[in-house]
Amino acid sequence: MTVGTGHKGGRPKKVKKAVFPVAGLGTRFLPATKSLPKEMLPLVDKPVIQYVVEEAIASGIEKVIFVTGRGKDAIENHFDRSIELETLLEKRNQGSLLEVVQHISNMCEFWYVRQKEPLGLGHAILKARDIIGDDPFAVLLGDDVIHTDGTPGLRQLMDVYEERGKSVIALEEVPAESTSKYGVADPEWRDGPLCKIKGLVEKPTANPPSNMAVIGRYVLTPGVFDFLEKVRPDAKGEIQLTTGLNAFCAKEEMFGLLFTGRRYDTGDKLGFLKATVEYGLRNGEMGREFASFLRSIKY
Ligand code: UTP
Question: For residue 23, how far is its CA from the centre of ligand 1 (angstroms)?
Fold first, then answer.
Protein backbone atom coordinates (compact mmCIF):
# COMPACT_ATOMS: atom_id res chain seq x y z
CA MET A 1 0.00 0.00 0.00
CA THR A 2 1.21 3.51 -0.84
CA VAL A 3 0.82 5.44 2.40
CA GLY A 4 -1.18 8.66 2.23
CA THR A 5 -2.10 8.65 -1.47
CA GLY A 6 -5.60 7.27 -0.90
CA HIS A 7 -4.68 4.73 -3.56
CA LYS A 8 -3.90 1.01 -3.13
CA GLY A 9 -1.64 -0.10 -5.94
CA GLY A 10 -4.24 -0.85 -8.68
CA ARG A 11 -7.23 1.40 -9.17
CA PRO A 12 -7.45 4.64 -7.19
CA LYS A 13 -10.15 4.71 -4.50
CA LYS A 14 -13.33 6.54 -5.51
CA VAL A 15 -13.69 10.10 -4.25
CA LYS A 16 -16.79 10.08 -2.04
CA LYS A 17 -16.08 12.84 0.49
CA ALA A 18 -16.02 16.58 -0.11
CA VAL A 19 -14.89 19.34 2.22
CA PHE A 20 -16.59 22.73 2.00
CA PRO A 21 -14.66 25.34 3.98
CA VAL A 22 -17.25 28.03 4.77
CA ALA A 23 -15.76 29.65 7.86
CA GLY A 24 -14.34 32.77 6.16
CA LEU A 25 -15.60 36.23 7.08
CA GLY A 26 -16.60 37.36 3.58
CA THR A 27 -15.19 40.86 4.08
CA ARG A 28 -15.30 41.65 0.34
CA PHE A 29 -19.08 41.60 0.55
CA LEU A 30 -19.64 43.70 3.66
CA PRO A 31 -22.02 44.94 4.93
CA ALA A 32 -24.25 42.23 3.35
CA THR A 33 -22.16 39.55 5.07
CA LYS A 34 -22.15 41.07 8.54
CA SER A 35 -24.74 38.57 9.74
CA LEU A 36 -25.53 36.59 6.56
CA PRO A 37 -22.95 34.08 5.29
CA LYS A 38 -21.91 34.99 1.73
CA GLU A 39 -22.63 31.38 0.76
CA MET A 40 -26.32 32.00 1.53
CA LEU A 41 -26.72 34.92 -0.88
CA PRO A 42 -29.30 33.78 -3.46
CA LEU A 43 -28.59 33.35 -7.15
CA VAL A 44 -32.12 33.78 -8.51
CA ASP A 45 -33.87 31.41 -6.06
CA LYS A 46 -31.19 29.20 -4.50
CA PRO A 47 -28.36 30.08 -2.16
CA VAL A 48 -24.97 30.02 -3.84
CA ILE A 49 -23.78 27.12 -1.66
CA GLN A 50 -26.62 24.88 -2.89
CA TYR A 51 -25.38 25.15 -6.49
CA VAL A 52 -21.95 24.03 -5.33
CA VAL A 53 -23.30 21.14 -3.22
CA GLU A 54 -25.44 20.04 -6.19
CA GLU A 55 -22.34 20.07 -8.41
CA ALA A 56 -20.54 17.84 -5.89
CA ILE A 57 -23.44 15.37 -5.75
CA ALA A 58 -23.81 15.31 -9.54
CA SER A 59 -20.10 14.44 -9.60
CA GLY A 60 -20.57 11.41 -7.32
CA ILE A 61 -19.89 12.82 -3.83
CA GLU A 62 -21.79 11.06 -1.03
CA LYS A 63 -20.59 12.82 2.12
CA VAL A 64 -20.38 16.62 2.46
CA ILE A 65 -18.27 18.02 5.30
CA PHE A 66 -18.81 21.70 6.06
CA VAL A 67 -16.08 23.49 7.98
CA THR A 68 -18.12 26.22 9.62
CA GLY A 69 -17.47 29.06 12.00
CA ARG A 70 -19.31 31.70 13.98
CA GLY A 71 -22.39 33.13 12.32
CA LYS A 72 -22.74 30.30 9.81
CA ASP A 73 -25.82 28.61 11.37
CA ALA A 74 -27.92 29.58 8.34
CA ILE A 75 -25.93 27.07 6.26
CA GLU A 76 -26.60 24.24 8.75
CA ASN A 77 -30.27 25.14 8.89
CA HIS A 78 -30.55 25.25 5.11
CA PHE A 79 -29.32 21.66 4.71
CA ASP A 80 -31.32 20.37 7.69
CA ARG A 81 -34.99 19.37 7.69
CA SER A 82 -37.53 22.05 8.52
CA ILE A 83 -40.43 20.07 9.97
CA GLU A 84 -42.68 23.12 10.57
CA LEU A 85 -42.27 24.29 6.97
CA GLU A 86 -42.84 20.78 5.59
CA THR A 87 -46.01 20.38 7.69
CA LEU A 88 -47.33 23.73 6.54
CA LEU A 89 -46.67 23.00 2.84
CA GLU A 90 -48.32 19.59 3.21
CA LYS A 91 -51.41 21.14 4.84
CA ARG A 92 -51.62 23.68 2.04
CA ASN A 93 -51.25 20.98 -0.63
CA GLN A 94 -48.16 22.70 -2.03
CA GLY A 95 -46.60 19.41 -3.13
CA SER A 96 -44.06 20.76 -5.59
CA LEU A 97 -42.65 23.26 -3.10
CA LEU A 98 -42.56 20.51 -0.47
CA GLU A 99 -40.44 18.42 -2.83
CA VAL A 100 -38.05 21.33 -3.41
CA VAL A 101 -37.63 21.79 0.35
CA GLN A 102 -37.23 18.06 1.13
CA HIS A 103 -34.74 17.55 -1.71
CA ILE A 104 -32.25 19.88 0.02
CA SER A 105 -31.88 17.84 3.21
CA ASN A 106 -32.13 14.48 1.40
CA MET A 107 -29.35 15.18 -1.11
CA CYS A 108 -26.62 13.39 0.84
CA GLU A 109 -25.05 12.95 4.25
CA PHE A 110 -23.97 16.28 5.83
CA TRP A 111 -21.27 16.58 8.48
CA TYR A 112 -20.10 19.68 10.30
CA VAL A 113 -16.81 20.56 11.94
CA ARG A 114 -15.98 23.89 13.45
CA GLN A 115 -13.05 26.18 12.76
CA LYS A 116 -12.97 28.29 15.91
CA GLU A 117 -11.05 31.14 14.30
CA PRO A 118 -10.66 31.95 10.58
CA LEU A 119 -6.96 31.13 10.44
CA GLY A 120 -6.88 30.45 6.71
CA LEU A 121 -8.10 27.99 4.11
CA GLY A 122 -5.33 25.47 4.83
CA HIS A 123 -6.22 25.56 8.53
CA ALA A 124 -9.92 25.05 7.72
CA ILE A 125 -9.17 21.95 5.63
CA LEU A 126 -7.03 20.48 8.42
CA LYS A 127 -10.15 20.52 10.62
CA ALA A 128 -11.64 17.79 8.40
CA ARG A 129 -8.62 15.48 8.72
CA ASP A 130 -10.22 12.99 11.15
CA ILE A 131 -13.32 12.59 8.97
CA ILE A 132 -11.30 12.16 5.78
CA GLY A 133 -8.91 9.57 7.26
CA ASP A 134 -6.95 7.81 4.51
CA ASP A 135 -9.40 8.60 1.70
CA PRO A 136 -8.93 10.89 -1.28
CA PHE A 137 -11.26 13.86 -1.02
CA ALA A 138 -12.56 16.90 -2.87
CA VAL A 139 -12.47 20.50 -1.69
CA LEU A 140 -15.02 22.96 -3.06
CA LEU A 141 -15.07 26.65 -2.23
CA GLY A 142 -18.66 27.60 -1.61
CA ASP A 143 -18.48 30.95 -3.37
CA ASP A 144 -17.00 29.70 -6.66
CA VAL A 145 -19.96 28.65 -8.78
CA ILE A 146 -19.24 26.73 -11.98
CA HIS A 147 -21.72 26.45 -14.81
CA THR A 148 -21.17 23.79 -17.47
CA ASP A 149 -23.36 22.47 -20.27
CA GLY A 150 -21.97 18.96 -19.80
CA THR A 151 -19.73 17.26 -17.24
CA PRO A 152 -19.90 19.07 -13.85
CA GLY A 153 -16.73 20.96 -12.89
CA LEU A 154 -15.70 18.67 -10.01
CA ARG A 155 -16.42 15.53 -12.07
CA GLN A 156 -13.88 16.75 -14.66
CA LEU A 157 -11.20 16.70 -11.94
CA MET A 158 -12.40 13.35 -10.56
CA ASP A 159 -12.05 11.78 -14.02
CA VAL A 160 -8.38 12.77 -14.09
CA TYR A 161 -7.90 11.55 -10.49
CA GLU A 162 -9.49 8.18 -11.28
CA GLU A 163 -7.12 7.73 -14.21
CA ARG A 164 -3.92 8.85 -12.46
CA GLY A 165 -4.50 8.38 -8.71
CA LYS A 166 -2.89 11.74 -7.90
CA SER A 167 -4.11 15.13 -6.72
CA VAL A 168 -5.75 17.35 -9.35
CA ILE A 169 -6.57 21.02 -8.98
CA ALA A 170 -8.79 23.19 -11.17
CA LEU A 171 -7.13 25.98 -13.12
CA GLU A 172 -8.43 28.89 -15.13
CA GLU A 173 -6.51 31.11 -17.55
CA VAL A 174 -6.70 34.71 -16.36
CA PRO A 175 -5.36 37.96 -17.86
CA ALA A 176 -1.71 38.60 -16.90
CA GLU A 177 -2.67 41.66 -14.83
CA SER A 178 -5.00 39.55 -12.64
CA THR A 179 -2.53 36.83 -11.61
CA SER A 180 -1.66 38.80 -8.44
CA LYS A 181 -5.16 37.99 -7.09
CA TYR A 182 -4.73 34.20 -7.28
CA GLY A 183 -2.55 31.24 -6.49
CA VAL A 184 -0.75 30.59 -9.80
CA ALA A 185 0.48 27.26 -11.18
CA ASP A 186 4.05 26.67 -12.30
CA PRO A 187 3.71 23.85 -14.85
CA GLU A 188 6.40 21.29 -15.58
CA TRP A 189 4.57 20.42 -18.79
CA ARG A 190 1.24 21.15 -20.41
CA ASP A 191 -0.75 18.98 -22.78
CA GLY A 192 -3.99 20.72 -23.83
CA PRO A 193 -6.08 21.34 -20.70
CA LEU A 194 -3.90 19.12 -18.48
CA CYS A 195 -0.60 20.07 -16.89
CA LYS A 196 1.76 18.61 -14.34
CA ILE A 197 2.40 21.08 -11.56
CA LYS A 198 5.87 21.60 -10.19
CA GLY A 199 5.04 24.56 -7.98
CA LEU A 200 2.40 27.06 -6.94
CA VAL A 201 2.91 30.72 -6.10
CA GLU A 202 0.40 32.58 -3.93
CA LYS A 203 -0.62 35.98 -5.35
CA PRO A 204 2.60 36.76 -7.28
CA THR A 205 3.26 40.49 -7.48
CA ALA A 206 5.85 40.07 -10.26
CA ASN A 207 6.89 37.37 -12.75
CA PRO A 208 3.96 34.96 -12.37
CA PRO A 209 5.04 31.47 -13.47
CA SER A 210 2.02 31.22 -15.84
CA ASN A 211 -1.42 32.73 -16.38
CA MET A 212 -3.11 29.60 -14.94
CA ALA A 213 -4.88 30.57 -11.71
CA VAL A 214 -6.01 28.12 -9.04
CA ILE A 215 -9.76 28.25 -8.51
CA GLY A 216 -12.05 26.68 -5.93
CA ARG A 217 -12.06 22.98 -6.86
CA TYR A 218 -9.52 20.40 -5.78
CA VAL A 219 -9.23 16.62 -5.57
CA LEU A 220 -6.54 15.80 -3.05
CA THR A 221 -4.91 12.69 -1.71
CA PRO A 222 -4.73 12.46 2.10
CA GLY A 223 -0.93 12.84 2.06
CA VAL A 224 -1.59 16.60 1.80
CA PHE A 225 -2.49 16.83 5.50
CA ASP A 226 1.10 16.24 6.67
CA PHE A 227 2.18 19.18 4.51
CA LEU A 228 -0.64 21.44 5.71
CA GLU A 229 0.35 20.69 9.32
CA LYS A 230 3.79 22.12 8.60
CA VAL A 231 2.70 25.37 6.93
CA ARG A 232 3.67 28.39 8.98
CA PRO A 233 1.20 31.27 9.28
CA ASP A 234 1.73 34.09 6.75
CA ALA A 235 2.00 37.81 7.58
CA LYS A 236 -1.79 37.89 8.23
CA GLY A 237 -1.54 34.88 10.56
CA GLU A 238 -3.25 32.58 8.02
CA ILE A 239 -2.30 29.06 7.01
CA GLN A 240 -2.53 29.13 3.23
CA LEU A 241 -3.61 26.08 1.27
CA THR A 242 -1.40 27.16 -1.67
CA THR A 243 1.71 27.04 0.53
CA GLY A 244 0.88 23.49 1.65
CA LEU A 245 0.15 22.38 -1.92
CA ASN A 246 3.40 23.92 -3.13
CA ALA A 247 5.37 21.76 -0.68
CA PHE A 248 3.19 18.71 -1.38
CA CYS A 249 3.69 18.78 -5.17
CA ALA A 250 7.45 18.56 -4.67
CA LYS A 251 6.90 15.17 -2.97
CA GLU A 252 3.91 13.68 -4.78
CA GLU A 253 2.79 14.20 -8.38
CA MET A 254 0.05 16.80 -8.79
CA PHE A 255 -1.91 17.74 -11.89
CA GLY A 256 -3.74 20.88 -12.95
CA LEU A 257 -6.80 20.87 -15.21
CA LEU A 258 -8.11 23.84 -17.17
CA PHE A 259 -11.75 22.92 -16.64
CA THR A 260 -14.44 23.43 -19.27
CA GLY A 261 -17.18 25.77 -18.11
CA ARG A 262 -17.79 29.21 -16.73
CA ARG A 263 -16.82 30.20 -13.18
CA TYR A 264 -18.30 33.00 -11.13
CA ASP A 265 -16.61 34.34 -8.00
CA THR A 266 -19.77 35.14 -6.08
CA GLY A 267 -17.77 36.24 -3.01
CA ASP A 268 -16.91 39.35 -5.00
CA LYS A 269 -19.62 41.97 -5.63
CA LEU A 270 -19.07 42.24 -9.38
CA GLY A 271 -18.74 38.45 -9.75
CA PHE A 272 -22.01 38.03 -7.87
CA LEU A 273 -23.81 40.53 -10.14
CA LYS A 274 -22.51 38.79 -13.27
CA ALA A 275 -23.68 35.43 -11.92
CA THR A 276 -27.09 36.84 -11.01
CA VAL A 277 -27.61 38.20 -14.53
CA GLU A 278 -26.46 35.05 -16.31
CA TYR A 279 -28.38 32.64 -14.05
CA GLY A 280 -31.41 34.91 -14.43
CA LEU A 281 -31.11 34.73 -18.23
CA ARG A 282 -30.75 30.92 -18.12
CA ASN A 283 -33.81 30.51 -15.90
CA GLY A 284 -36.58 28.62 -17.72
CA GLU A 285 -39.42 30.39 -15.93
CA MET A 286 -38.37 34.02 -16.28
CA GLY A 287 -35.28 34.13 -18.52
CA ARG A 288 -37.01 35.58 -21.60
CA GLU A 289 -38.81 38.26 -19.67
CA PHE A 290 -35.62 39.13 -17.82
CA ALA A 291 -33.72 39.39 -21.14
CA SER A 292 -36.30 41.79 -22.54
CA PHE A 293 -36.12 43.81 -19.32
CA LEU A 294 -32.31 44.04 -19.63
CA ARG A 295 -32.61 45.14 -23.27
CA SER A 296 -35.01 47.90 -22.22
CA ILE A 297 -32.66 49.44 -19.64
CA LYS A 298 -31.17 52.79 -20.56
CA TYR A 299 -28.32 54.05 -18.43
P1 UTP B 1 -11.87 33.67 0.80
O2 UTP B 1 -10.70 34.49 1.11
O3 UTP B 1 -12.44 33.70 -0.57
O4 UTP B 1 -13.07 33.92 1.76
O5 UTP B 1 -11.55 32.16 1.22
P6 UTP B 1 -13.29 34.93 2.92
O7 UTP B 1 -12.08 35.03 3.78
O8 UTP B 1 -14.56 34.53 3.57
O9 UTP B 1 -13.60 36.23 2.07
P10 UTP B 1 -13.04 37.69 2.03
O11 UTP B 1 -11.76 37.60 1.25
O12 UTP B 1 -12.88 38.17 3.44
O13 UTP B 1 -14.11 38.43 1.30
C14 UTP B 1 -11.84 31.06 0.40
C15 UTP B 1 -12.75 30.07 1.10
O16 UTP B 1 -12.14 29.58 2.28
C17 UTP B 1 -13.00 29.70 3.39
C18 UTP B 1 -13.98 30.80 3.01
O19 UTP B 1 -15.20 30.61 3.70
C20 UTP B 1 -14.09 30.65 1.50
O21 UTP B 1 -15.06 29.68 1.15
N22 UTP B 1 -12.19 30.02 4.56
C23 UTP B 1 -11.28 31.01 4.50
C24 UTP B 1 -12.39 29.30 5.72
O25 UTP B 1 -13.23 28.38 5.80
N26 UTP B 1 -11.62 29.60 6.80
C27 UTP B 1 -10.70 30.58 6.78
O28 UTP B 1 -10.02 30.79 7.81
C29 UTP B 1 -10.52 31.30 5.60
Answer: 6
